[in-house]
Amino acid sequence: MTAAETAPARLEHRQIVTVLWGLMLGMFLAALDQTVVSSALRTIADDLDGLTAQAWVTTAYLVTGTIATPLYGKLSDIYGRRPVYLWAIVLFAVGSLLCGFATSIYELAAFRVVQGLGGGGLMSLAMTVIADLTSPRERGRYQGYITAVFAGASIAGPLVGGVLAGQETLLGAAGWRWIFLLNVPLAALAVVVVLRVLHVPHRPVRHRLDYGGAVALVIGIVPLLVVAEQGRVWGWGSGRALAAYALGLAGLVLFVVVERRTGDAALLPMRLFSIRAFRLGSVLHFVVGIAMFGALTTLPLYLQLARGMTPVEAGLATLPTVVANVTVTLLVGRLMSRTGKFKVFLAAGIGSLTLSMVVFATLRADSPLWYVFVGMLFMGAGLGAAMQTITTLAQSEVPRADMGAATASVNFFRSNGGTVGAAAFLSILFSLAGSRIAERLSTALADPSYRHLAAQPHNAHALDGVLRADGSVNLEDSAFLRALDPRVAQPFLDGYVSAMQVVFLTGAAVALTAFVIAAWRVPDTMLSAD
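RE: above sequence
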């Protein structure tokens, strides 16, 4: 079969936009859920008594989404994009319904696993359909629409999440539970729209499903992510941690062996890695994903813990990120379509992301908001320029017959990076926060005036159960900070922010690594117009 035979008929701009409506509604579900949960996570964790375990809620979703993503690529190549996309929406809705009735932080994380199984297909399948219908040069323009959906969700998500999380009860249930329950009617609407408008030409590709590769991938990834989350509790060099490292490494080695033997039916076809553009795109998605998700997870905590913002206020405060993201995304998409160039936008975007991490790493508890907004503008602009160009790079030299598997693969690496970033950065934060708060609290308690203030009834009541007999601090619930006199709360805020500075500094180092790769390894090629 020739390339001409495998390529779908080229659609006009109006027809592509019609298809996009079906894709964007499904993607809006996943994007909205991510931003809604992020802004409300502190409230959820406080209600379920699991502030330090909150990373499981994010990590569980990302882990299953990461593992499911390559499977969706294969399934859509075999059965078509539309039926597989519909299945992803239904799974996401079922997971959302279960999350709405969770009774503990670990139960919520378990239900997020189901949600992630659906969410893993929503992004990668949308990118795959766009790649099916457009030339490499045109993709940036249409992927800009997709990125704009995420930006819109970034506006609506924190606001909706903040409003709902701020309600003690709504129709007989805690307000935050409606963050998940509202996904069910939205999913039903998405199914109706997809059935009506998502009609994409499909030529079945004969693939065997690589179940062995999927099992090996689980064995390789899950232990490493668990130790990233639990390392601060177990000890990074403890027996359990070493066992997790060994099991994860063995699983990854097994995965490579299985994939080589499986050949074209592999979950991640090894021959794709012989394509330089795909290889570089995969690496950049992974590295940028670490920095991006690490920052997106930590920044709301800074706004709510250090600045005392409510979830609604924290959501509104992120608007500079959203405005910069939407503006740069649409601008870069059009410039790529017009010029055929993408490397300059790729390097500039990752450079801007790196600068944002540097700004965040210098934040203090009393930093002016305009300084925080500067970092947000750099981050929004950086992600707007970088994410779509990395995807365009990875897809640029891949044969159309492999587009589903290839797009799912690069999204797999981005999700994997995001999972590592969310788990590791929160682990670093809470590993350091306890000791740094204890140090500052010890210094403050040496001052008689601070001891007198802390002993006042309302402060003493708020601190009950927080200060342990051994001098350590219980960080499972941060609600006590809202009840404390600001002067008594200051050592806690300074300790949290000190730990966050290390997190953002780590993010800056990771983003700088991606910038070096983009500037020195990515070729300055012209995208094909065919």
